[in-house]
Amino acid sequence: MTDMETAHDEREELRVRIAGWMDGPLDLLAIVLLCVLVAEFATELPPAWSGRLDALNWFIYSVFTSYFVVQFLLAPEKGRYLRQNWLAAISVLLPAFRVLRVIRVLRATRALRGVRLVRVLTATNRGTRSLNRALRGYQFGRMLALTTAVVAVGAAALVYFERDAAEAGAVGRADALWWTLGFVTTIGSEFQPRTLEGRVVTLLLVVWGLGVFGYVTGAVASYFVGQTGEDKIDGDIADLRREVGDLKAMLDRALEERPGS
């Protein structure tokens, strides 16, 4: 093994070790970020609370950015690392719009809404992955927690993106929550989003709902199949015992009927 290969292996080992150390804190921050996102999109906060949430938002993003940069610098194959973590790379780049003051230009265009949509998607992806790892081993609880998070973020996103497009003014939080539950449960809803971002959110909610429906259907079917299989095994064992008993009785009779016995 050459010195370069040894150095690459050492860097990769260090990168993996740092990732193991940071998994827990980053998962916690990702869940907090989801809560911040819901509060920011679904409510009109006083200036003081808005400033606190903004500061918390920047702190979380700075931690994620620092972690991503360290991981990227330590990765021996940087192109491969970017391909495997492209969504994280996008989430890291989003705060740069504010730093570079490009956001002032975007405020006058529809592109700001697209940036907000990407922020929703990246934060939801990071948060749901963290919940998935935290609740590993609890199948039903994990699915319930993930669906609750998706419903909360989806409702908040609909409130934000559809507030200016609604005919009757701002979209209410209760209505948005009801519509989101309709999409996720695949029952459907009378709500028709009027913005592109709202339609994307609605489509993703429907896709998630179909996945949950498939999971529940598979779990129920697996339960009944398992019950049927257990009953069949019990029946086979009983039949086997009966046949063994019959063979033993036949053998005893044969021994008794032997001449000289």
Write the layout of secondary structure elements.
Layout: H1 3-42, H2 47-74, H3 78-84, H4 86-93, H5 96-99, H6 103-106, H7 111-134, H8 139-162, H9 173-184, H10 196-256
Your description of this structure?
The chain is mostly helical. The chain has 2 domains: 1-134, Four Helix Bundle (Hemerythrin (Met), subunit A); 135-234, Helix Hairpins (Orthogonal Bundle), CATH 1.10.287. It is 81% helix and 0% strand. It contains 10 helices and no strands. It has helices at residues 3-42, 47-74, 78-84, 86-93, 96-99, 103-106, 111-134, 139-162, 173-184, 196-256. The mean pLDDT is 78.
In short:
This protein is an all-alpha fold.
Please tag this protein with its features.
single chain; 261 residues; mainly alpha; Four Helix Bundle (Hemerythrin (Met), subunit A); Helix Hairpins; 81% helix; flat
CATH topology of the largest domain: Four Helix Bundle (Hemerythrin (Met), subunit A)
Reading the helices and strands in chain order gives: HHHHHHHHHH
Distance between the termini: 81 Å
User: How many separate structural domains?
Assistant: 2
> What's the CATH class of the largest domain, please?
Mainly Alpha
Question: Which class of secondary structure composition applies to the elements?
Answer: mainly alpha
Shape: flat
How many strand segments?
0
Q: Provide the CATH architecture of the largest domain.
A: Up-down Bundle
Largest sheet: none
Arithmetic mean pLDDT: 78
Q: Number of helical runs?
A: 10
Spans of at least 5 consecutive residues whose pLDDT stays below 50 are none
The percent range for strand residues is under 5%
